[in-house]
């Protein structure tokens, strides 16, 4: 790459950055997007726009992110998020400490070696000033290569040291979370995966209950088996959609009583595609009928799901934090791909659709 190409690439990246910043500013100032761009401010009870969407600095989030403490991150997003940031800062520390020491040393070492001339290369005339900063600019067998060898040891030392500090810090965070007096549901639970098929005549829940009640007879509380809720969710979303439409129609009807005739004007809609075709019906009565149809259908599908669509994973609850912590670190079967147990994450950290995957797929 010659210098002009480098400048072109740099300029293109700057233009893309400016476009993305302008897009962020435009989207973040829309009130409807506040939950996307400023969720933590909303959770804290703060105004996401600091007195107005127009006056908010588009880079204010950087200041807030840098000023947030580790405890703030734990309170908002949990210990796993804090651990994630620990390793991000560790990677940044490795890059900074390596660059601060090596760039001022290695770049002059390469640039001042004049042993390789332009006409001695096989690069077809593409050799330029940027190439002089690379290690390839140094003559073979030169003592200057010792600088690059020492640089390798320096980067290794920095990486090992910072990772050692990070792992110690993460261990302290995990230990502090375990001994914290704050009561959280996940501290009394474990996540069990790779549950083998239940014996004949026994449901998955009965299998899990009997298995853990036998091992922990005094502290076992209950289990919650993961189920395939795809059909239930589909009916529930349809039901919620009709409830919202009913609330909207009732609001329109109530508003018509205030602004129009005392008896009001009942809203209507068509039952066909997108409400543009089909029979014209009273919206309130139509939505009530649909809701009354879907409620028993949802209840029936829930019973079928609990009976027939139980999957090979479950959350097991105990009445003792000590037992839960001990169970999460114990083997519960001779085979490693059966009855896999781990600490229960926070509910918001669970990806329910992945829990049924077995040990080999998870690895």
Automatic annotation (TrEMBL):
Keyword terms, alphabetized: Membrane, Transmembrane, Transmembrane helix
Segments forming domain CSC1/OSCA1-like cytosolic: 188-354
Limits of the CSC1/OSCA1-like N-terminal transmembrane domain: 5-165
Superkingdom, natural source: Eukaryota
Transmembrane region(s): 6-27, 85-107, 145-164
GO molecular function: calcium-activated cation channel activity
Protein name, entry field: CSC1/OSCA1-like N-terminal transmembrane domain-containing protein
Gene Ontology cellular component list: plasma membrane
Protein's organism: Camellia sinensis
Entries under InterPro entries matching the protein: Csc1-like, CSC1/OSCA1-like_cyt, CSC1/OSCA1-like_N
